[in-house]
Amino acid sequence: MRLAILSIHSSPLGRAGSKDTGGMSTYLRGLSSAMGQRGHQVDLYTRRPNSGEDRVEQVEANVRLINPGDGLAEVDKTHLYPYCSKVAESIERFSCLEKLDYDFIFSHYWLSGVTGHLLQKRWNKPHLIMFHTLGRAKNELCPGENEPQQRLESEARLARDCDLVIVASESEKKRVLNYFNISLKKMALIPCGIDRNLFKPLNNKDSQALKLYKGLKGPGKTLLAVGRIEPVKGFDLLIEAISRLPSEDNFKVVVVGGEGSDRSLLAALKDRAYNLGVSEQLFFTGVVDHSSLPVYYNAADLTVIPSYYESFGLVALESIACGTPVVAAPVGGIPELVSQNCTFGGLVKGRDPLNWAAAIQKLYTTSRPIPAPALEAGLAPYSWPAAAKKLELVLNSL
Ligand code: UDP
């Protein structure tokens, strides 16, 4: 089959951890590659600023990244909505030129959904959408988030008008059903996979980590948090919690990820850490290359995930695959992943820093690297080939 996959506001090959590029890109790379390996033709459509020309990059066998020239200058994600029809026109023009006849349109994030819906009407082909996050959930669950009405209305309309909504976790499935009141038949769950060649326990982890980042290893415990510096990641709670840990515990906290759309947030977090007396234990690395992240997960004793909301929570999966337990909020697919195996870490309900500090302390004093058999069993449901197989089944049933 031939798929047009839309990732308009952010390139699937962009630098994960930087502005507008995160778990969705990891998901798209893993799934597209696995679909390509199953012999399907995958065209990933994205846009590049100031491009008047069409650019096509063969990413790997059967997978292409396509930037149809749309003549638009750089348009930030928050201003892209009025240009979706122009983006759809440029995709249509490119596909006509190449005489491409897609079997399915698969849109990622609401802006691609709006674009994909326009193509659905023109091509009369099934339209699948994966929201990744929902504006309404961000607004309801995370103080400081203010997603526009346009997004909330578009997501409701898209859920109604598309042929299938894909989600990566049970909790997101429930949320979509609850928010949009669509039929269960119109939904499919395709969990994230994980690249086990990259995310795995390493033998020489300490020396590698030392070379990469001097603050990461040393005496005492190392806590890790990974994610863009966005309100929804809840790193404020991490700072509050570590300020309640006994100082004799000699811990370090490393936060990996670039700044998000609000540039004042990093400074606010650093100020808060200073006022709470923990700034010397806290290191912000900025963006780390995806391929180097396994070393960080390996060098950590515990990964902390205090997010207000996740649609899946890839960071938990990556950390566990590296053998490092997590202490996490019960959001997205994390409860499904963590609850099945007690060596994978623990969940903390609510946002009381004292509870978080207690859970962190308990886990870093008692937990050990996750044993190999537990890893194999726990990670079995999370593979890209399995995700591609599931998508294929779902598409064949449409
Ligand atoms: N990531 C990365 N480098 C960084 C920070 C994050 O490669 O500096 C990757 C991380 O490995 C994960 C993704 O970005 O695959 C973030 O996924 P998540 O779903 O947690 O983030 P979101 O999309 O919500 O920002």
CATH topology of the largest domain: Rossmann fold
Could you state the order of secondary-structure elements as H and E?
EHEEEHEHEHHEHEHEHEHEHEHEHEHHH
* Content-based structural category: alpha/beta
- Total number of strands: 14
Bound molecules: uridine-5'-diphosphate
Strand arrangement within the widest β-sheet reads 3-4-2-1-5-6-7-8
Uncertain segments are none
- Estimate the strand proportion: 15-25%
Q: In percent, how helical is the residue content?
A: 25-40%
Largest sheet: 8 strands, mixed
Write the layout of secondary structure elements.
Layout: E1 2-6, H1 23-37, E2 41-45, E3 55-60, E4 63-67, H2 84-97, E5 104-108, H3 110-123, E6 127-130, H4 135-141, H5 149-161, E7 164-167, H6 170-180, E8 187-189, H7 205-212, E9 221-226, H8 235-242, E10 251-256, H9 264-275, E11 282-286, H10 293-299, E12 302-305, H11 314-321, E13 326-328, H12 334-338, E14 345-347, H13 353-366, H14 372-379, H15 384-396
Parallel strand pairs: 1-2, 1-5, 2-4, 5-6, 6-7, 7-8, 9-10, 9-12, 10-11, 12-13, 13-14
Antiparallel strand pairs: 3-4
Helix pairs in contact: 1-15, 2-3, 3-5, 7-10, 8-13
Bound molecules: uridine-5'-diphosphate.
List keywords for this structure.
398 residues, alpha/beta, Rossmann fold, 2 domains, 8-stranded mixed sheet, 6-stranded parallel sheet, 15 helices, 39% helix, 16% strand, globular, binds uridine-5'-diphosphate
